[in-house]
């Protein structure tokens, strides 16, 4: 197989190697028409003068501040007719020979490429030139985006046939079919081994921690008061602890018995992942069992156990001022409520801790109050999420997508958080953290923005009603 691949690649290199080299030509001239005022001309001119085309080419950069609804092609043509007839052919029906125009509208978010008939490229290549600058333009890097677009144009304009995409596809098709399967398979096997190693490291850390604390966990479970509702719920989770530990032990041996070759298989990686997830789950549960026993019985060290229960909620309440000060939170009714909720509940949390410290409240009642505060925050964050989604999303499908994205982040964050008694008793959808709200909302917006951008990035080639019979080579798209 390697011999076959070598012969095919050698043949391809030979075909390319015998072709004549293209001549590099600096632009014949560079014209900057920055009517939008967004370009840094010293950097731009220097960079453009050092870009090599395959034939002397007049490079024009044109910017304008328009509207999203504008026909950008029509506006570029209108500008050329009014102020630069030299950009047009003698009969005014096409762009002048030897000319390449790179144009964009930073306000209307459109970019276009136009050229003389002797510099004409296919619609797909025009789209490729525009695509090369799109990400930079989305970040408002106007000068760098322009340079990138012109570099791409220089590569594609008058491109020799032996450097074209179709040539490499046609000559490399045999090699592709020969190697594609092997390349993908090799990459997947390597990725599987890397995943397996990560899962194994994660699982071993959790399993070692559980194993070392096995006797302590059993002793803690024996003295948890079953009369307590929290104690009973935690003990319910402990009842199959030994069976699940034995299952983790079997998975541990199985995972470590795999060779590197066997860890290249997805099915085996899934088994190692199962081992890691189970080991981490047991490690979190034995911590909760210890804290439940210590806290409910007020054994020595109960202060540390109590602090571990309130710390996640306290951290969330401290982060509320940052959440409500964000731009997207302004004007939402939920913002005002959250703004007052934080200080109020932080004071209640301090009072709750003091009451527990002085013995004026039972551990059971303290956990009840803690759960009540957490439930209140969760309800408000859910309202805030709904309001933020309604404000940003334009369609019902966007709202659904944003909610799904935020729920997924909320669930993932729940499993990453420090294990607590309340967290082990209730499910992920019972609590909502400020951290998961923030990260989930950012992810949801990015997902919607990407969908909108993809939907609006279609190319346009017409020159509008004022274009008349003009048929010059050019097109535009959105960014």
From TrEMBL:
Residues 1-21 form the signal peptide. The chain crosses the membrane at residues 165-184. Keywords: Membrane, Signal, Transmembrane, Transmembrane helix. It comes from the Bacteria. Residues 452-479 are annotated as: Disordered. Residues 459-471 have a biased composition (Gly residues). It holds the Pfam family DUF5129. This is DUF5129 domain-containing protein. The lineage of its organism: Bacteria, Bacillati, Actinomycetota, Actinomycetes, Micrococcales.
